[in-house]
Task: structure prediction
Amino acid sequence: AGHPQPDARSLAAGTALLTFIAAAPATAHLLFLISGGASSLVEVLPAGVTLSDLQHANAWLLGSGLDIARLNTVRKALSAIKGGRLVGHLQGRQVQVLLISDVRGDDPAVIGSGLLAADPGAPRLDELALPPWLAQMCRQSPVHRGDISAHVEMHVIARLADAKRAAGDEATTLGYSVSVHDEFIDGAANTAGQRMAQSLIHATPGVHIWGGETTVQLPPQPGRGGRNQSLALAAALELQGREDVVLLALGSDGSDGPTEDAGALVDGGTIARGELAGLDARHCLANADAGRFLEESGDLVHTGPTGTNVMDLVIGLKI
Result:
């Protein structure tokens, strides 16, 4: 189905999901496998909301700079199955849910916009600075009550901490001194990139590992790239001329924003290499066009789909 923008296949998946549940015997035990991305991959729209409405809303959300909890507050308002509403279709059947978490705190009510978990503590729509057209769309959408069921058993089976630990174990195997940092990297990607670079410059030698998920507020006509590419290019500006530090920023699912690149690996020569193509790094950052600069500097990383999604990794090497 469509990701990060839902499409007609996302609605077909939602219809197939409800059909499958309805056809299951009343005594059936159902197993749900839910990962990050489910907000886009499966959807059932409430009356009065069209696919075009959903796509318009999602396009604004993806460029708004809002964090995932606030994004999902709007997504739940425009859905007939999110925010725990799918529970109402289970009719008391026993359910086990295995989740791959792409959210801070690994909350089942936030992963995939909470298909099977309501979140009474989520931000309220009236607390969000939504454009008038989107606020009106949310108000017009019929209100559904999300459910919580004792028949639903939740297990988070993969999370960001697992990816950080695995990266650290591999670095140790390769003979590096390793520091896995607890700090969650969030906020504006450009600011985070500057902060990560400075942390590495002043760090002890070895491999340093962080994780999290930053945001990018898109201009009216964004260029090419994603949050990890913006973070990496901002870090490269801080690392200019240095020969002792490299930094890798990438999405664990192998896709950074609406691109097929996972992120970028930058060093002290990144800016100089990109400038040889006549590009200005700060101009590219301001225009959400970091990917174009990083392609010219030769620093983009392409992995293809990884089969998981546990947010982003930032890995630095100080020698």
About this structure: The two ends are 43 Å apart (CA to CA). The chain has a mean pLDDT of 93.
